[in-house]
Design goal:
CATH topology of the largest domain: Glutamine Phosphoribosylpyrophosphate, subunit 1, domain 1
Structural class: alpha/beta
Bound molecules: 5-amino-5-deoxy-1-O-phosphono-D-mannitol
CATH architecture of the largest domain: 4-Layer Sandwich
Strand content: 15-25%
Helix content: 25-40%
CATH superfamily of the largest domain: Aminohydrolase, N-terminal nucleophile (Ntn) domain
CATH class of the largest domain: Alpha Beta
Largest sheet: 8 strands, antiparallel
Shape: globular
Strand order of the largest sheet: 3-2-4-1-10-9-11-15
Number of helices: 18
Radius of gyration: 26 Å
């Protein structure tokens, strides 16, 4: 959350900063700001606005700020409301130090109290503002030692200050005393340095850099760096200088274009047939000798043979994908599997069990809760000492170059392409596919399913792309019509069972996050234990009824809702039993195992159309950010 861009070099800073911030706006859009060292006066010029980046761009359109060194920020509010006074950069009382920060300074109140006692006046409600004041105080102390005003002095000052900070941060600092220098540092929040032609550009994420260069130096945790137009010095937390080679960005910046779609979310829903095609091409290979399909991974899978149980760590939509995955891994592959909220796992982990595979799932690869939980699991398993407790890890992510991509060496890249809409759609779909791949792989190595059963599942997966195209064609318009009738509802209940229970949760999450309508997903059989009290004619029920093991039960649960006057929407193929629905969103008949991959599409479309009909900002819903980098 929050996006940082910082630049030093020979090119004009302002356009570089605004361009970079544009690519990071998915990280937060509560406010935005920049600070630049004026090339003639050497003073810091700062400009901040509330709301989206376009407000800052408009505000700056008539202004020419000459300068080649600057920092910029797009904010997702944690401490302090989304107002101009809380927007970054934050500046010290003398106006000579400017700071942008991502993360949370947990001990800011203590630090603030001390600074206030010393007479420092605060202008914001943020945790960040303590940092420029502390750096200025440190620079004052250093000046008494007769240190020169240069980047190295700023580096020392920042290093001294961050040693007093608790919490997580990525930060970039300007000081008018060293007008061509920039100091950046990180702890548990990402920061990447791009080596451009004539400039170094540092940012929270690669899209902000990819327009300028594909050569990057990711800063490691607890590192600090001094950047000047002449070079970069990186130091670790022991103040040891670090030397390492830059790396190439794996994918050059992809064209992020809405095409003819009104919103990115709709385009991304429509990308799903291609997501399926890509997955099939990337991960499914046919053995030319025996004609059998196998899942192809970019890492040695030998270690999976000794796995006896699986734990999956994820948040939000990724957790829902993990729940479908868990169902597959247990029911299809026969491996006991548990799914945990990353934010809970870290503080109440399950007892250490031997021969466990830990799977971290994160679209962005930057979710702080997931990073921290994986980190904790690696540490506690490593110190357990016994071989059978060793950490066995896989990460499923859309950003192999992300923090999680660097934290875990066995990566399943979901290859969904950049997803701009804050509501995850095609990446959820691609995460699901990754779990189908894992389930097939485990079923093959553990022999939990006959080759025929495995082949049946693979055949169904191969049939997906045209089925998805068909679904999109059928349901785009019908869900738009349905949205017309439902855009004013207050509550919606989503029901599903078995492998489709997580799809009910995901359907509810999609609706609430973009339309701000209260929605809750339940296992259909659980409704009678409480949620049924909510039902009346004002509360529609969306019931996922895929033929298979629990079809009749789901239909009976739907009957119970109908008896309470709820309007019933079915996500099901047209078959005996589905006449009960007031409205049927028809799904092609399929094997129950693959039904989640089809059922999710009309739910995404329905949420999208309801939010669009309500005139909401579908791609950047209020209070959310694409990448949640605070705990
Ligand atoms: O990048 P991650 O997959 O780790 O993100 C996890 C959640 O923050 C994310 O899925 C969130 O729930 C989305 N807004 C869902 O649409």
């Amino acid at each position: 959350m929050c996006g940082i861009v910082a630049v030093t070099g020979y090119k004009k800073a302002l356009p570089l900063l605004l361009n970079g911030l544009g690519k990071l706006e998915y990280r937060g859009y509560d406010s935005a700001g920049i600070a630049i060292i004026h090339s003639e006066t050497k003073n810091i010029v700062c400009n901040k606005t509330e709301g989206k980046l376009k407000n800052l761009i408009n505000n700056l359109s008539e202004k020419n700020i000459p300068g080649t060194v600057g920092i910029g920020h797009t904010r997702w509010a944690t401490h302090g409301k989304p107002e101009v006074k809380n927007a970054h950069p934050h500046i010290d009382s003398s106006g000579t130090v400017a700071v942008v920060q991502n993360g949370i300074i947990e001990n800011f109140q203590d630090l603030k109290n001390k600074l206030q006692k010393e007479g420092i006046i605060f202008n914001s409600d943020t945790d960040t503002e303590v940092i420029p004041h502390l750096i200025q105080r440190e620079l004052n102390t250093l000046s008494k030692l007769k240190l020169e005003n240069n980047g190295s002095t700023l580096l020392v000052a920042v290093r001294n200050v961050i040693s007093d900070l608790e919490g997580s941060y990525a930060l970039a600092v300007l000081w008018s005393g060293a007008p061509s220098s920039l100091v950046v540092a990180r702890r548990q929040a990402p920061l990447i340095i791009g080596l451009g032609e004539g400039e170094f550009i540092c940012a929270s994420d690669t899209p902000a850099i990819a327009n300028f260069t594909n050569i990057i130096l990711p800063l490691e945790d607890e590192e600090i760096a001094l950047l000047t137009p002449l070079g970069i010095e990186i130091y670790d937390s022991n103040n040891e200088r670090q030397y390492r080679n830059p790396v190439s960005l794996k994918v050059s910046e992809q064209v992020i274009d809405k095409m003819n779609f009104k919103h990115f979310m709709l385009k991304e829903i429509y990308d799903q047939p291609d997501t399926a095609k890509n997955w099939l091409e990337n991960y499914l290979i046919k053995n030319s000798e025996n004609g059998q399909y196998q899942i192809k991974y970019p890492f040695d899978t030998k270690f999976l043979e000794s796995i006896a149980r699986i734990e999956i760590i994820a948040c939000g939509t990724s957790k829902h994908a993990a729940m479908v995955g868990s169902f597959l891994l247990e029911q299809f592959s026969g491996i006991p599997t548990n799914v945990y909220y990353a934010s809970e796992f870290r503080y109440s982990p399950p007892p250490l069990l031997p021969n466990t595979l830990t799977i971290g799932v994160s679209q962005s690869g930057e979710t702080a809760d997931t990073i921290a939980a994986i980190d904790m699991e690696i540490k506690r398993r490593s110190i357990a000492g016994d071989e059978k407790f060793r950490p066995n890890l896989i990460a499923i992510t859309n950003r192999s170059e992300s923090s999680i991509g660097r934290q875990v060496s066995n990566i399943i890249d979901i290859c969904a392409g950049i997803e701009v809409g804050v509501a995850a759609t095609k990446t959820f779909f691609a995460q699901l596919l990754s779990f189908y791949g894992l389930a097939i792989h485990f079923a093959q190595i553990k022999g939990s399913q006959s080759p025929d059963e495995i082949k049946k599942l693979i055949t169904e997966l191969i049939k997906l792309p045209p089925l998805l195209e068909d679904l999109l064609e059928k349901h785009d318009q019908s869900s738009e019509k349905l949205a017309h009738d439902f855009f004013n509802i207050k509550d919606v209940i989503f029901l599903g069972r078995g492998i489709n229970y997580p799809i009910a949760l995901e359907g509810a999450l999609k609706l609430k996050e973009i339309s701000y309508i209260h929605a809750a997903g339940y296992p259909a059989g659980e409704m009678k234990h409480g949620p049924i009290a909510l039902l009346d004619k004002k509360v529609p029920v969306i019931s996922i009824a895929s033929p298979g093991e629990v079809f009749d039960k789901v239909i009976s649960n739907a009957q119970e809702a109908k008896a309470r006057d709820s309007y019933l929407i079915g996500i099901a193929p047209e078959c005996n039993g589905t006449e009960i629905f007031d409205y049927l969103m028809k799904i092609p008949s399929s094997n129950e195992w693959v039904s989640p991959l089809l059922n999710i599409v009309p739910l995404q479309l329905l949420s999208y159309h309801i939010a669009a009909h309500r005139g909401l900002d579908v791609d950047q819903p209020r209070n959310l950010a694409k990448s949640v980098t605070v705990e």
